């Protein structure tokens, strides 16, 4: 079961491309929600209010099922799609790339636009740190206090992240572990007896 994905760190990657006096400023952000994307886009639209276009593409989720491309007034598929293409060719997710265009007075044509947006996005990505992350699964286990040693031995061996724990006569522990190891962790916990 595949439980790894690649994304960028929270450091913003910046890129630049210039063609026939048109300037393309590119920014790559690590994002985890559509609300976060809307907020970032709003900031860029305010900051670069005098720019002609604020184009972007994003991909969210380990399964990469949530994605969008936006040409923001450029001819269809000349901006969002080449930006998205850079995300896909680098196999990234949880990422937003924004490319802001200042028009230089000379039309670049569809081929020129595609090259410009793709190159600006690639330049932004070249200034990012790419990292591997794991899809995690949460497991909550309830057990009598007498099983504490056994539970803690399993936790020490398998090294899941402890999210929360309550110790009383009946104890509850919530753990987070990469998806490919979740079944093994559940089996080990469930096979514990009153030692």
Automatic annotation (TrEMBL):
Record domain Impact N-terminal: where: 20-125
Record's protein name: Xaa-Pro dipeptidase
PANTHER family per the UniProt record, alphabetical: IMPACT FAMILY MEMBER YIGZ, IMPACT-RELATED
Pfam family, one: Impact_N
SUPFAM superfamilies in UniProt: Ribosomal protein S5 domain 2-like
A GO BP annotation: regulation of translational initiation
A GO CC annotation given for this chain: cytoplasm
Recorded family membership: Belongs to the IMPACT family.
